[in-house]
Write a structure and sequence with these properties.
The chain has one domain (2-83). The protein is 76% helix and 0% strand. It contains three helices and no strands. Helix 2 runs antiparallel to helix 3. The protein is flat, with a radius of gyration of 17 Å.
Length: 96
């Protein structure tokens, strides 16, 4: 069973590497945004798979922390991509 979980984790890591191509090539900000979400979700999945082995309970805790931080990083990415004009509390009106 250990080999199966390790194989699945390796497959998910290959998906992350394929996503890196999309980050580098783009072509749009939306593509990069979707890949950022892929990194967060896949990273949590890899850690959960590896945490299933005996004696690796700390990886489960790290996966939970990553799952909580992933939405924060997505919001930060969107704010960076959109710019500060649409920031809450800004006295400027967003551009049309």
């Amino acid at each position: 069973m250990h080999e199966l979980r390790t194989g699945l984790a390796f497959f998910l890591l290959l998906n992350i590497l394929a996503g890196m191509v999309r980050v580098i090539r783009g072509p749009t900000v939306t593509d990069r945004f979707i890949v950022a979400q892929l990194f967060g979700t896949t990273g949590v999945g890899v850690l959960i798979l590896l945490a299933a082995d005996a004696g690796r309970d700390a990886l489960r805790d790290v996966a939970l922390v990553f799952a909580l931080l992933a939405p924060v990083t997505v919001v930060a990415f969107v704010r960076f991509a959109v710019g500060s004009d649409a920031a809450p509390g800004s006295d400027k009106e967003p551009r049309p």
